[in-house]
């Protein structure tokens, strides 16, 4: 059975110090913003929610920051729950700062699509939350993983199987979420999905700063990085560059609860891996 069906969505609080820094930080930061927003009678979410006219008005704060705010505790919890593992996998294999840049690029690319389509289809509609990014990272994972595992086995009994192509699994999730959560933003999720496939096809590469710029940033904030040791795991650009250049790491070989460097894991798996390991997926 595909590792995608064995996803352990909920992080283990006992080993939270072994999770990637940005993944943990984003979850906590958005929760704090939720509390502040509720206390201010939703003033923050109203100020930063995305709507189609925001692009024409050049309201860049809305275009960039809308994912950080949520309509309530359930909205926040559901988004963080579904984003945590895919984002942790990405951060561990791509680096912490690189992942932060990716989040912003995906948010903007999603917003551009949402605003352009919404100008005609749904003017005046507002959107907030991390859910579009959930679909972006699921799309990225699906595209990369389908080369390793072309199908997800949904059901197996007495020799018969029902399979779903891994590449299109996020599309199925999109329609399932539309049915189960009718109040959710279908168009926002669809835009996030397109942005994720766009990233998976490496079309976003031209938008990233050179690695030396990220290394310079890390050098400047190194005292803060050192403070994170023992609290969460920071993945440096120097190590992540080697992992990214080596190609895609199948999710069945990435243990987001391990603080061991992916470089070391990749080396070990090359000589010892025989198809076993901590299975993660979506």
- The appropriate CATH architecture is Up-down Bundle
Outline the low-pLDDT stretches.
263-282
Task: Output the CATH homologous superfamily.
Answer: Rhomboid-like
As a whole number of angstroms, the C-alpha radius of gyration is 19 Å
CATH topology: Rhomboid-like fold
Overview of the structural elements:
The protein is mainly alpha-helical. The protein is 57% helix and 5% strand. The chain has a two-stranded antiparallel ribbon. Strand 1 (151-157) and strand 2 (160-165) form a beta hairpin. The chain crosses the membrane at residues 21-44, 64-84, 96-121, 127-143, 164-181. It is found in: Golgi apparatus, cis-Golgi network membrane. It catalyses: Cleaves type-1 transmembrane domains using a catalytic dyad composed of serine and histidine that are contributed by different transmembrane domains. Pfam families: Rhomboid.
List the helices and strands and how they pair.
Layout: H1 21-39, H2 43-48, H3 53-56, H4 60-65, H5 73-94, H6 96-121, H7 131-145, E1 151-157, E2 160-165, H8 169-180, H9 186-200, H10 211-220, H11 222-228, H12 237-245, H13 262-272
Antiparallel strand pairs: 1-2
Helix pairs in contact: 1-5, 5-7, 6-9, 7-8, 7-9, 8-9
InterPro entries: Peptidase_S54_rhomboid_dom, Rhomboid-like_sf
Membrane topology: Multi-pass membrane protein
Keywords: Hydrolase, Membrane, Protease, Transmembrane, Transmembrane helix
Question: Can you give me a brief rundown of this structure?
Answer:
This protein has 282 residues and is mainly alpha-helical.
């Amino acid at each position: 059975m595909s590792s995608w069906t064995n996803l352990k969505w909920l992080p283990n609080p006992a080993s939270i110090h072994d999770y990637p820094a940005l993944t943990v930080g984003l979850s906590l930061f958005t929760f704090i913003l939720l509390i502040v927003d509720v206390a201010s009678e939703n003033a923050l979410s109203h100020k930063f929610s995305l709507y189609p006219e925001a692009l024409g008005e050049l309201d860049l704060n809305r275009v960039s920051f809308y994912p950080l705010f949520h309509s309530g505790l359930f909205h926040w919890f559901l988004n963080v729950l579904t984003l945590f593992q895919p984002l942790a996998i990405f951060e561990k294999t791509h680096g912490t700062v690189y992942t932060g840049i990716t989040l912003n690029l995906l948010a903007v690319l999603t917003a551009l699509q949402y605003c352009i389509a919404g100008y005609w289809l749904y003017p005046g509609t507002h959107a907030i939350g991390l859910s579009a990014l959930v679909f972006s990272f699921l799309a990225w994972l699906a595209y990369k993983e389908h080369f390793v595992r072309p199908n997800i086995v949904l059901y197996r009994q007495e020799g018969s199987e029902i399979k779903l192509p891994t590449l299109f699994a996020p599309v199925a999730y999109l329609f399932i979420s539309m049915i189960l959560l009718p109040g959710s933003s279908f168009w926002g999720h669809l835009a996030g999905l397109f942005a994720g496939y766009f990233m998976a096809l490496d079309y976003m590469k031209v938008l990233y700063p050179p690695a030396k710029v990220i290394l310079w940033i890390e050098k400047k904030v190194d005292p803060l990085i050192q403070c994170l040791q023992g609290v969460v795991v920071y993945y440096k650009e120097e190590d992540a560059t080697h992992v990214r250049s080596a190609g895609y790491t199948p999710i069945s070989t990435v243990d987001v609860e391990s603080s061991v460097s992916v470089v070391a894991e990749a080396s070990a798996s090359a000589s010892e891996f025989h198809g076993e390991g901590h299975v993660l997926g979506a």
